[in-house]
What does this fold into?
Amino acid sequence: MSLQLVIGNKNYSSWSLRAWLMLAHYEVDFQEIPIALFTPGYKDELARYSPSLKVPTLIDEELTVWESLAICEYVNEVYLEGKALPAGREARALCRSFCNEMHAGFMAIRSQLPMNCRSRKKVELTPEVLAEVKRIDALWTQGRRRFVDYGPYLFGKFSIADCMFAPVVLRFKTYGVPLGPEASEYSENLQQNAALQRWIAAAREEELVLEDFEFGAEISE
It folds into this structure.
């Protein structure tokens, strides 16, 4: 097996999920190399694989690719004949805009609503988080209104954009973030993805608890 994907804790590692979901959804054969982040010696283990000392990292024989969006683009080009991006030029450009905005932004959500697949939490949403939620709601609504006739995902068919926003879908589920009707429908659609369900099931089996990522009061589902 030529492809190896180095990932972190499935319960917490949002960036790992993005690259993993890309490979798993499209059934690209790969070996998973998990590293328990933020535990003693984890950086030494990461140094064996990742030049940035971060996850995810993709190893394809002699080539190493890091950063989740770069990995998704590489897999799309080399293994998927481009089918993880929309076929139309305008839709493809829009999809890349969505992906890059997610990759570069939404810092309040990242810091105040950490991914936690196995919990349901109650937190007070700050004005900064609410502003970012509003923007994401608008993006998801835009995608669904334009591409609803082509399938259940953000651009109709599954794409890199769904990989990039999957951790946000899980964050919003964990913290009960309210969304408009189209955005809620998209969130529910993505949660039904078989590969994403496998990730969630594995995350719930993990025993490691990282207190720095356990924000908010626990609530029952």
Summary: The chain has two domains: 3-79, 89-202.
